[in-house]
Amino acid sequence: MIISPYLEEEQKAYLVEKWQEAAGAYSIGPKQQEDIWDLLYAAYADWGRHYHNLSHLYNLLQLADQWEAQLEDKALVQMAIFFHDVEYNPKSKDNERLSAQFARQQLRKPLGAKKCKQLEQYILSTEKHAPLLDEPDCRLFLDFDLAILGQSWSIYEEYAQAVQKEYVNWYNFLFYKQGRRKAMKSFLDRPQIYYSAVFREQYEAQARENIDREISQ
What we know:
Blueprint: H1 9-25, H2 30-44, H3 54-66, H4 74-83, H5 95-111, H6 113-124, H7 136-146, H8 153-168, H9 173-188, H10 197-215
């Protein structure tokens, strides 16, 4: 997985391709596609984003491609990926609601009220990383978002350092570490971190090992 605020041109082209794929599935016209993409790109390319950035989108979209056969509505999951962190302010506790609101503003007409509500619930599920809809796609989307936890320690450490960089400009270091430790311990306290059997089998043990190692430091 890539943990970087910068992407190669080929990787940026991949993001555009996947955006056009998802938007095309809902018959969003070229002009609207371009306008929305400009907003998404500006948000995720913001200088303060060290983890929740374009690379994060790239990683999740790669997972959606990898697990495409398991998805019932890949385009909706792609939309959830593109919009779930569009609003991201380390000082705010309202990022998920604002991201869902932004998605509704941009997509309600092409997606329709029912599908847009479904998308909002996917995005809101990331607040506590618990599915608000009892749907396989919602569970897999959340597993994509947490797949970083189950990577090798070197990648996990790079991820943890990137998240820290997003917060240190706003919070005292010790205050951040206390909050981070509490948040990560909450994952260990769960009976399972991942909601799908395939992700539990592939990532659960490594994720718990990584989290335990981080909070023990």
